[in-house]
Amino acid sequence: EVQLVESGGGLVQPGGSLRLSCAASGFTFSSYWMSWVRQAPGKGLEWVANIKQDGSEKYYVDSVKGRFTISRDNAKNSLYLQMNSLRAEDTAVYYCARGLWFGELSNWGQGTLVTVSS
Amino acid sequence: DIQMTQSPSSLSASVGDRVTITCRASQGISNYLAWYQQKPGKVPKLLIYAASTLQSGVPSRFSGSGSGTDFTLTISSLQPEDVATYYCQKYNSALFTFGPGTKVDIK
Prior knowledge:
The complex is a heterodimer. By secondary structure, chain A is mostly beta strands. Helix content of chain A is about 0%, strand content about 50%. Chain A contains no helices and eleven strands. In chain A, the strands form two sheets. In chain A, strands 2, 4, 5, 6, 9, 10 and 11 form a seven-stranded mixed beta sheet that branches. In chain A, strand 7 (about 70-75) and strand 8 (about 80-85) form a beta hairpin. The radius of gyration of chain A is 13 Å and the shape is globular. The mean pLDDT of chain A is about 95. By secondary structure, chain B is mostly beta strands. Chain B is built from no helices and eleven strands. In chain B, the strands form two sheets. In chain B, strands 2, 4, 5, 6, 9, 10 and 11 form a seven-stranded mixed beta sheet that branches. In chain B, strands 1-3-8-7 form a four-stranded antiparallel beta sheet, with no helix packed on it. The interface between A and B is medium-sized, with 25 and 24 residues.
C-alpha cells in the first residue's frame, strides 16, 4: 500500500524557515516524480513544486521561486521542501503527492500545517 | 503560463440530478487534465485522469470529457456522498496548475 507521511510543519515567524519532510513507502520511490501541493485555510489547491525521479529537474510555482527548494533522497525514500523567507501567505496545509505516472496525483499524504505568524 | 478556470464556482442540485462542471485552459493542453474530489476536512482524491479515464475504484456515475482547452466533469446521478469541492488540474508540462474549484452541495 502506498503511504506518504508528511512532517515538519508548525508555527514560524515571518521571514523564518522550515523544512518539510515526506516519508514514502509501499512503492519504488526512485521511479516517480514527486510533488508538493498546498492549501491555504478555506482556499483551493495550489501546486507548489515538482521534482524528477533522479532530482535532476525541479519546477516551482512563481510565488515560491527563490524561496523554496524541493529535494529528495531516494536512499531514504524521502521528499523534502526547504522553505525560507516565509510569508503570511505561505500559511497552508502542505501535501506531498505522487502521480500514477506523472501529473495524475493518485496518492496524497495527510498534510502538514504551516502557520506563518508573529 | 496556462491558467485554468472552472464554472460554476458553486452549484446546488437535487439527489439524482445530472451535474456538469466545466474547466477551461487558457491554452491547449491536449488531454493532460485530471479531476479531483475533496470532501470537507479530507485529502483530495483523484477521480479522472487523461481527461476521460476513470481512476480505479471511482463510481461509474463520474465521467470526464474534452480535449484541447475545454473539459467537463459529469456526475450522472448526484448522490449525497458527492457533496464536495471538485478541482481540475492540468499536467501537460511539469508546471501543474489547479482550477479554482467548484463546490457541489445538495438542494
